[in-house]
Design a protein that fits this description.
alpha+beta, 3-stranded antiparallel β-sheet, two-stranded antiparallel sheet
């Protein structure tokens, strides 16, 4: 028995779906990927599922956290116009996930922001 909506559950769904003739027929020509996530009520990882012409092609857990924000904020951070830590603290960049990890490894994240600036980019 597996925990409902956990990665092991989705792996079993993949196996069952790929062995199901009706699923194969109904998804023929369907090429897409989706994220399935629980928003409240249980602490479960977001799951990425890729469909490829009649089969479930890939099932995996997504990253434990997400750092997201508007393109212009990312651009300001990358240009050094806005400090990455300040962008996170003021929620211009929002972290979703295990906050203790980003706090514990804040120096690593700040260093990553610096290293990101070394990549030649076109804005």
């Amino acid at each position: 028995m597996v925990k409902f909506l956990d990665l092991d559950y989705w792996k079993q769904v993949e196996e069952i779906a790929n062995g199901d003739e009706e699923f194969g027929i109904k998804t023929r020509g369907f090429i897409a990927s989706f994220t399935f996530s629980v928003t409240e009520g249980a602490d479960l990882p977001a799951i990425y599922i890729k469909f490829n012409d009649g089969k479930v092609d890939e099932v995996r857990a997504l990253a434990e956290g997400t750092l997201e924000g508007p393109y212009d904020v990312w651009t300001q951070v990358n240009k050094g116009e806005l400090d990455g830590a300040n962008a996170i603290m003021t929620r211009m960049l929002q972290f979703k996930g295990n906050m203790s990890a980003i706090i514990r490894y804040s120096k690593a994240f700040l260093r990553l922001f610096q290293l990101m600036q070394e990549v030649p980019v076109e804005y």
